[in-house]
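Q: Maleylpyruvate isomerase family mycothiol-dependent enzyme, please. Structure only.
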Amino acid sequence: MTPTPDRDEIVPLLTEQWDALAKLVAGLDENRWRTPSPLPGWTVFDVIAHVVGTESMLLGEKPPAHDPNRVKTDVRGLAHVHNETAVLNEIWIDRLRPLSGDRLFALYDEVTERRTAALTQLDAEGWARQTPSPIGQISYGAFMRVRLFDCWVHELDIADSLGREVEEGGPRAEAAFAEFARSIPRVVAKRGEAPSGSRITFVLTGPLARTLHIAVAERASYVDGFDEQANVEITMDSGLFVRLGGGRTTADEHTEQISITGDEQLGERLVRNLAFTI
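A: Structure for Maleylpyruvate isomerase family mycothiol-dependent enzyme:
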């Protein structure tokens, strides 16, 4: 069961994250708004439109009506669309694309301001209430931590697209990374096909430096350490780890930035199969 995080921690971090996104795109000209992002088919404009769409849905709103003067996009036919959540994301983005960057930015400000007010007014019962989310039925509070992670990683997407540097550590990043890291044991067992009995260590350097030990038995799970040496130890920057897990890049593009000690075959298979959020 996904634990419900502390409301007094997550709400301020989420609103700070919305502010960070706003600062990153404020003042962009129309060409920069349409800069391709690391996400298939999405520009910087589309990333912000996605956030607008998701937060609007959480306010109970539906996508704008389709403009009959535009060709209707078959979003289900897009190569990167694999589930119903992705379908709804693409509908929102497609309906908002005719806007200018300035108009989208104004809409983003208006929607996130209303979401901030809604979260501020939410009581403990509402925070704990079970609700559908992209990762299944969880508490509303747990969903908001998912939203924090989503918006945080989109800040990295936009920064990478525009060639800008942003702070990748700090409280927002720590909380977002905690959400991201919950899936890693399952990913190494399922996608990375780590065999039962595997002892795997990820040594992360950089702004979110930490060491993650994963033991694979009937289920893969984090452990404090191993009595024996790990079968494989993988060292890389925390930012690269997140981008690999997010499917934003591939291990083959960063071979010199990844160190594998021990079972190299297993290590290479793991780093090539970390993507799970795209």
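A: Brief note, in case it's useful. The chain has eleven helices and seven strands.
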